């Protein structure tokens, strides 16, 4: 988010749209690839909607063409888009992967989560409400 704000302040809107479109293409393709991997590795799990595998494979073929064409035509924009995505890796390791965090880090993460929930008017659903007790 911070990298996007900096790019938005420094760059023009057209470039920002290119960054976001490349990131979207990349995320959509990885999602469809995950669908195919799950269909292959866990064929028995419940799926509310099941489509023929020809549809996601065809989508991935077009996705690969778009991604390769984007990388060929605008490598700098794609590189910056990848850097924007990779800025989330340290956040993942600090917030999710690192299990034995000191209490001060846990308190910081909890306060940032609470602040973000208040800012965006989002609350994680809890198991029981106060009225039920």
Automatic annotation (TrEMBL):
InterPro entries: AminoAcid_Transporter
Membrane-crossing segments per the record: 16-39, 51-73, 79-98
Keywords attached to this entry: Membrane, Transmembrane, Transmembrane helix
MF (Gene Ontology): L-amino acid transmembrane transporter activity; neutral L-amino acid transmembrane transporter activity
Top-level taxon of origin: Eukaryota
GO biological process: D-alanine transmembrane transport; D-serine transmembrane transport
Official protein name in the record: AAA1 protein
Gene source species: Zosterops hypoxanthus
Gene (name only): Slc7a10
């Amino acid at each position: 988010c911070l990298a996007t704000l900096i790019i938005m302040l420094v760059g023009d809107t057209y470039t920002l749209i290119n960054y976001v479109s490349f990131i979207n293409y990349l995320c959509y393709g990885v999602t469809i690839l995950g669908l195919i991997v799950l269909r292959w590795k866990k064929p028995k799990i419940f799926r509310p909607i099941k489509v023929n595998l020809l549809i996601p494979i065809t989508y991935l073929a077009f996705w690969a063409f778009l991604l390769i064409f984007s990388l060929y035509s605008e490598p700098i924009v794609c590189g910056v888009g990848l850097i924007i995505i990779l800025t989330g890796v340290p956040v993942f390791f600090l917030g999710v992967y690192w299990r034995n965090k000191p209490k001060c880090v846990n308190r910081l993460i909890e306060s940032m989560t609470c602040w973000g929930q208040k800012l965006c008017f989002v609350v994680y659903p809890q198991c029981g409400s106060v009225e039920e007790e």
